[in-house]
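for ur thesis appendix - Protein O-mannosyl-transferase TMTC4. copy paste whatever u need, i formatted it the way the template wanted (i think)
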Amino acid sequence: MAELDADLDRIIPSSVLPPFWAKLVVGFVSLVCFARSYDGDFVFDDSEAIINNKDLRAETPLGDLWHHDFWGSRLSSNTSHKSYRPLTVLTFRINYYLSGGFHPMSFHVINILLHGGISVLMVDVFSVLLGGLQYTSRGRRLNLAPRSSLLAALLFATHPVHTECVAGVVGRADLLGALFFLLSFLGYCKAFRESNKEGTHSTFWVLLSILLGAVAMLCKEQGITVLGLNAVFDILVIGKLNVLEMVQKVLHKDKSLENIGMLRNGGLLFRMTLLASGGAGVLYMRWKIMGTGPPAFTEVDNPASFADSMLVRAINYNYYYSLNAWLLLCPWWLCFDWSMGCVPLIKSAGDWRVTAPAALWLCLIGLICQALCSEDNHKRRILTLGLGFLIIPFLPASNLFFRVGFVVAERVLYLPSAGFCMLLTFGFGALSKHTKKKKLIAGVVLGILFINILRCMIRSGEWRNEEELFRSALSVCPLNAKVHYNVGKNLADKGHQTAAVRYYRQAVRLNPKYVHAMNNLGNILKERNELQEAEELLSLAVQIQPDFAAAWMNLGIVQNSLKRFEAAEQSYRTAIKHRRKYPDCYYNLGRLYADLNRHVDALNAWRNATVLKPEHSLAWNNMIILLDNTGNLAQAEAVGREALELIPNDHSLMFSLANVLGKSQKYKESEALFLKAIKAHPNAASYHGNLAVLYHRWGHLSLAKKHYEISLQLDPTASGTKENYGLLRRKLEQMQKKDV
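the 3d part is after this line
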């Protein structure tokens, strides 16, 4: 049994040490932590990655997944985020197909089960990292650290920083990446299963490990870092390389350098060559697929990376690292988004926050010194592997090799947290070894696990819907403009416009260049008829971002309402210039032309809208009504029939076409459409009123009377219906007098 396990003998009971029970406990606890999120909604980024992602739908060819990014955009596009995760998107597509649509429960359940499976795998991974790699004569791997591997796996399974990955459906990318990351590592360990003499290996398992690393990368970019962890593990555990001793021999020009000879004889250089060439090949293919180079992020996404001073960039990057370390150490202040002013830049050495990276590096240097200089080989190995698992998977998010699109992201800590849990377990073992108060340490461990489970359950509840998620961030990141924007958007979607305006204004105050907040605020002000301020906001938005097509269109709508028709037309044209396939803008342009009695231009604009979006009901309706009003009944009928073929269940189209058919004296067909529309929308007063007019013309006076009365019950203020009903009653009275 490993030395660390002996130190934990009073903390972990022997009854849970058998592999089956240990994994059962870990799996059960991991499911309990995040079970509350199983019936949650699609929240935050889920909308773009799942609901609005056409790659999930059956009509999109499967082959397109290999040419699109995570969000469904073409990788060759300059606007693409270059996040290439086709295997994750494929699982979303399978989820969508099996659940029969966008039912979030099935998506959430898969995420929870994935975390449970990963936590169970962690028992095996930690047993190798903490206890070493040793096989029986039959090729069965021995678990030399059952207590420490179980404790580390429990700490991993219950860590609250994982909530974003598990409770947010988009986090499946991190879960799948972690799953294949661990499988790649365990596969690499199997390369030494059948070794009869020290140093031999199975090339098949090494190559399979590289393949699994590539699969991990196709789920999430950081998955490829498993090859680095495999290399570190091989050097330290298989090669038994003492880094400090080797450096000392090089510095003293020791010609013996036995370790180097051992490396050559043991095949380590060959395995390192395979890992390096495999990793380089996969990264090259990844770069080629990206097409146009790295993605273009903005200053609000990662302000430190845009700082002019290299010193300012370095200080802030290190401060970000310390924030990530704090989230691992004390995961109480969690936020769905850490950008847009949430973490202000450190611009001077006098800022007290510089003490955080100093403290971080002090701890890291201490751990590195212990990992290199300790005379205890077991301690050196655990500390080095723990630091490797902590740092290597984090490197793609470190800003060291390329700019990333975030300040802090809890999701990228999913894999590095395993290294943290490993170091924490080692720390508990060291404490237990040097103190007699074993029960106190056991109580601390149980307390941490209980608090973590409780925090996971609370945080999972906050991720169940957007309102709770966004509001939970207000206390953590009150300076984050995006938090206020999202709270405002959620309120606006629920119809609470006054409250939404307050949050949108705060978002603009915190970030005066936040064009999306300006656009949404301008929209609400437009609906409240506060047109002057709406125009000022939208004009500022397009001045800040001249290619913001949605803001140009909304500005056109406001200018149209202000009777500034030429300016409105120019705004619509500019929006279409920046977004050629913009059906809503063509629709609004058509409305402008209709107001100006430019009927041909209006019809052309609405036709463009329906070509780009065949289900654009409003554009079809306006075409039918305009043709009807201008006396082009035959053309109106043709357009109506074409529209209903495309949108057969749209009651407003049925109503418009029924009106046209009634005027064309096609009473029977008109009646059928009116009745079908009324069945779909029985409380529409105009539907009953116009059907009554049809019966009135047709001579079915009793039916006309019935529907006039229903229409007036639904809308007693309808003057046209009142007038027609009065005419019908007089006619019926006259008929009764004649009969008498």
